[in-house]
Write a structure and sequence with these properties.
This protein has 89 residues and is mainly alpha-helical. It has a domain of 58 residues. The chain contains 3 helices and no strands. The longest helix is centred in the last third of the chain and has 39 residues. It is elongated.
């Protein structure tokens, strides 16, 4: 709130996050691929859960890519109409 008590309209951030989520997802996938040849050693050491962690990270990353891409596209569709609505008195 401002000093006068009125609320300012918040604008969406110009950054949509799609690239960050994609990079993170690729890194999880690379980690999964790198660990697969070592699953015997990981099993012997009790660290087989590392492979499951990278698989879940990859799957959740794919959900994140879908979600952020959808949000970005929705904001791009709404942005031109919001600008024209604000320009009218």
């Amino acid at each position: 709130m401002s000093v006068t008590g009125e609320r300012r309209q918040l604008e969406p951030l110009p950054y949509d996050g799609v690239l960050s989520v994609r990079v993170g997802t690729v890194l999880w996938f690379v980690a999964l691929i790198v660990m697969l040849p070592f699953r015997g050693g990981l099993r012997a050491d009790g660290h087989l859960w590392w492979i499951a962690t990278t698989a879940v990270g990859t799957l959740l990353g794919l959900v994140g890519v879908w979600s952020t891409t959808r949000r970005r596209n929705r904001l791009r569709r709404q942005l031109p109409t919001a600008r024209t609505d604000q320009s009218q008195p």
